[in-house]
Specification:
Layout lengths: L2 H11 L11 H6 L2 H9 L15 H5 L6 H15 L8 H11 L5 E3 L6 E4 L2 H6 L1 H14 L4 E4 L4 H5 L3 H17 L4 E4 L2 H10 L4 E4 L19 E5 L8 H13 L3 E4 L21 H15 L3 E4 L2 H8 L5 E3 H6 L1 H5 L10 H18 L1
Parallel strand pairs: 2-3, 2-4, 4-5, 6-7, 6-8, 8-9
Antiparallel strand pairs: 1-3
Helix pairs in contact: 1-3, 1-5, 8-17
Bound molecules: iron/sulfur cluster (2 copies).
């Protein structure tokens, strides 16, 4: 749908109830979606759509079934097509995407008869290469003929509204998978999961948690069950099956899992969404501060490497589910420290080499 059509729909259907603005700093700053839509139709809008995290909380809470974030993404697309120079501010994240797509970092390794591939995602591969490697080893036991694909799903370009680039790049990934007969993607990254679910609907797309079982004895001897919280990534907002599987895994570890207010379908953005921090750090950090108030001093488990990194900037003790499942005691005691750039790039290269060797055997 074009931007005028989207704006016309939002303007006509929004009853200005204000529910969507209750937890959203962007809407609190710029006004309700119906009013923003009206200014778009009049070509008089003074809204910076690049300050919206595209988290879709507004879509979830809207009693009228309106999808304001779709309109804000379309506004981004219009801005980028009119002034491509806008993207200069995002050089760092776009360079990260380009490197992930390059021959240096990417890998398509599919053994004979391969139907399913592990597509870990750039972020977890760099920050937690050892946990990613162990996830692969575990997955291999339950998925015969498993292959590996290292590539960037191009969500940065998508979220920045550079849709032509996104479509071309993503289509190349899908074509390469198709040429190798791949029918199933198993990922450890919620963003990759969301992109494949949204734009490659012919593929079976799963998160790796659906294949894993925790070692129930790993807390044997512990006197009390540590209390933990869980943060669902906003890309998993509309996937209750994944949310439930993650909770079952955590409960299987005999942890005292306490729900945070505003989670599952109503989860908050961690602050990283939509690259808002590149244009307004304060708005981006507001989400993390809200989470910190809710979590207090409890450790917060998440299953997105990006969320883990961003929430920790607000002083939250975050634990990635992959680290927790693979070495619970070390993960909870803070002994597993995620790597940072430039080490993350080196990790990805080493991981690529390990995958190549493993799949040659
Ligand atoms: S997508 Fe998220 S940040 Fe954007 S308007 Fe909706 S609730 Fe606010
Ligand atoms: S929740 Fe829906 S109807 Fe209410 S102000 Fe937001 S977009 Fe409009």
């Amino acid at each position: 749908m074009s931007l005028p059509d989207l704006a016309g729909k939002v303007h006509a259907e929004c009853v200005r109830c204000g529910l969507c603005a209750e937890q959203c700093a962007f809407l609190q700053k710029y006004g309700l979606p119906g009013d923003i839509a009206k200014s778009v139709l009049n070509s008089r809008f003074q809204v910076d759509p690049f300050e919206c995290s595209l988290c879709q909380l507004c879509t979830e809470v809207c009693p009228e079934g309106i999808n304001p974030s779709q309109m804000f993404l379309s506004m981004r697309t219009q801005s980028v097509s009119r002034s491509p120079a806008i993207l200069k501010k995002y050089r760092r994240i776009l360079a990260y995407e380009a490197l992930g797509r390059s021959g240096l970092m990417s890998l398509y390794k599919t053994p004979e008869g391969c139907r399913a591939v592990f597509f870990p995602g750039c972020s977890i591969s760099g920050t937690r290469s050892e946990s990613t490697w162990k996830l692969f080893q575990g997955l291999r036991k339950s998925v015969p003929g498993l292959g590996v694909v290292l590539d960037c799903c191009c969500k940065p370009s998508h979220d920045l509204g550079n849709m032509d680039k996104f479509r071309n790049s993503f289509q190349r990934i899908v074509s390469r998978l198709h040429a190798r007969g791949v029918e199933e993607i198993i990922t450890a990254c919620p963003s990759c999961f969301w992109i494949f679910k949204s734009y490659a609907r012919h593929l079976c797309v799963k998160m790796i948690w659906e294949y894993l079982n925790p070692d129930k004895d790993c807390l044997a001897g512990s006197e009390k069950r540590p209390r933990v919280r869980l943060h669902d990534p906003c890309t998993i907002r509309f996937f209750p099956d994944v949310q439930e599987k993650v909770r079952a895994l955590i409960r299987g570890l005999d942890l005292d899992l306490q729900e945070l207010p505003l989670n599952s379908r109503k989860t908050l953005c961690c602050g990283e969404g939509g690259s808002v921090g590149f244009v307004n750090k304060d708005t981006a950090m507001k989400w993390g501060r809200m989470r910190k108030e809710q979590a207090g001093n409890d450790a917060v488990i998440t299953y997105c490497a990006g969320c883990a990194g961003f929430l920790s900037l607000s002083g939250i003790t975050t634990v990635h589910l992959a680290d927790l499942l693979l070495d619970l005691k070390k993960a909870l005691s803070g002994e597993i420290i995620p790597d940072k750039p430039p080490m993350t790039y080196w990790n990805r290269l080493r991981l690529k080499r390990r995958f190549v060797r493993a799949l040659l055997k």
